[in-house]
Automatic annotation (TrEMBL):
Protein name listed in UniProt: SPT20 protein
InterPro entries found in the cross-reference section: 6-hairpin_glycosidase_sf, 6hp_glycosidase-like_sf, Ssp411, Ssp411-like_TRX, Thioredoxin-like_sf
Pfam family, one: Thioredox_DsbH
CDD domains: SSP411 (cd02955)
Taxonomic lineage of the native organism: Eukaryota, Metazoa, Chordata, Craniata, Vertebrata
Sequence ranges assigned to domain Spermatogenesis-associated protein 20-like TRX in this UniProt record: 7-168
Highest rank taxon of the organism: Eukaryota
Biological process annotations from GO: carbohydrate metabolic process
Amino acid sequence: PSVPRHTNRLINEKSPYLLQHAHNPVDWYPWGEEAFDKAKTENKLIFLSVGYSTCHWCHVMEEESFKSKEIGEIMNEHFVCIKVDREERPDVDKVYMTFVQATSGGGGWPMSVWLTPDLKPFAGGTYFPPEDGVHRVGFRTVLLRIAEQWKENKDALLESSQRILEALRHTLEIRVQGQEPPPPAKEVMDTCFQQLSRSYDEDYGGFSRSPKFPTPVNLNFLFTYWALHRTTPEGARALQMALHTLKMMAHGGIHDHIGQGFHRYSTDQHWHVPHFEKMLYDQGQLAAVYSRAFQISGDEFFADVVRDILLYVSRDLSDQAGGFYSAEDADSYPTTTSREKREGAFCVWAAKELRDLLPDPVEGATEGTTLGDVFMHHYGVEEAGNVDPMKDPHEELKGKNVLIARCSPELTAARFGLEPGQLSALLQECQQRLSSARAQRPRPHLDTKMLAAWNGLMISGFAQAGAALAEQGYVSRAAQAAAFLRTHLFDPDSGRLLRSCYRGKHSSVEQSTVPIQGFLEDYVFVIQALFDLYEASLEQDWLEWALHLQHMQDKLFWDPKGFAYFSTEAGDPSLLLRLKDDQDGAEPTPNSVAVTNLLRAACYSGHMDWVEKAEKILAAFSERLQKIPITLPEMVRATAVFHHTLKQVVICGDPQGEDTKEMLQCVRSVFSPNKVLMVADGDSAGFLYRQLPFLASLERKDGKATAYICSNFTCSLPVTSVQELRGMLSP
């Protein structure tokens, strides 16, 4: 690499996204007082650009505009330019994305927003091409027009920005109107189910035509709906919708059949051609949802997908200190000599390449059959490439194949005169060869930032998989990551979580000079992870830390007037709005998960004020839950958990005893959305006994491990039979 011509202030940052822009000719500033002071002192507008390091269109805008010396000069002359990594600062991203969506009807990244010197937005959009086109104004033109407006009509711009801000404040208020109770669970569940059912794709699964997103929140809702309606036709349909969607995703090109894990989303209806980036939050949630599919169906297919996801994360997204990295990019260099990156280059194949790698004749198959023939038939490979040109406008995938399982193993085996067991071994051999070949290609960029929230989602994925599949190694990996969080993303002096840390030189873990404090989502997803980890490991330290963090979350984010939690804490003058997210998207909105966390926390501590808080959150979102519950499927699920009351499943016994282990395995193998698990091991000085005095009254029957199903700390008769316990766990 040549010596860079330009270096700006981003060179001192830790975020991989900000560092990608450190050599632009734009005089970028990070979000902070230095930039704000400059804007005020020089009376300049601010240009705010928000993105993330694995964002395809962010790369495009950088190449076209931010690397242009000429456009850089216009930006530097007229604006104070600020770059923000949306994953590092979701608070800044949410405020200005709310503005862009409200004023333009759409949103996305890169996000481009123009602000007054006091940070109020007045114009914005997403990606801009550098020059004017037939249908679109170019970035250079927009910059010059806005600079001109500021010169000629400053007062009008300031007035307009103030008006916009007031309107946003008014429309975004989520609060309890009077003494509103939480909405009724049955109606909200039924409406959500009907809305999902209407948008369901009967052929390929999923809940839209295209693009198609995994949306684990929808699938988790459907599993809970089935569990509470399992004897009805609606319950059967909910289960069929969820399992069919998961199967079609696993067969599709959105699933990496060679390198494991799932890509971000599919650009088509068939889950075939993905947008190739891989995000940690998808892997964590999908590991958990495929684990539930295995619990419910007993089908090893789903367990294999869980193992596949966790293999990918363990190998490619794991820091040696125990944390998890954020993402892998969609774009990479096709060869070591390429000058230009292409989307999907690391993952796609030409037919000739596959034939050359898999030339061996297959013993016992139809005469003349090679490994390549079998593999290419099974995964839909075509000589001219299998990507629809409509899904490849820039011709980056021309002549290439995105692998998609087009046939069942039985059909492929029959086509070549093979036994299904033999086919499985052959495909495995092919996958190993292709994996070795792919390892020679230049890898996509890896975002080595480690975020508390996303690490929380991944810990839940490992812990739930470990419990459902009875794989102790997964539980140990979850515990290693939780210990990493406690060491690197928790400040024991203040008792608070931090948002992010970074892989440094020589594989050390580094922190920013001024660490970013944790947001609501960090607390919510880490608390959920610690409860999941306690249930999988029975280590009470995790439970104790979870309850400490729940108290801290209440202190920092609770809205005592309108109820529910704000996404950010009070007291940051650079944030114009304190928002409450009201939509479950790629990740569930934090208030949705907080409801279930609060109910679990109450079960483990006896603090009934947490149940009241859960009730108040549901009341605050009541109108939205009743009108358009499909926007909050995770909160709808939590509404059902609230109304059905969590069962405390208490196993009295020695955690190392075989009879106790058998009972624990029974509880973990059954999908029951409204249970919490705990072990009363007789240690009256232990954390759980101090929290829940009623545990001291529960005893083993006839010296055997004994289960009690308790509700609001009132317990059933003792049960020593695993079969009887299994029956009692059904909702």
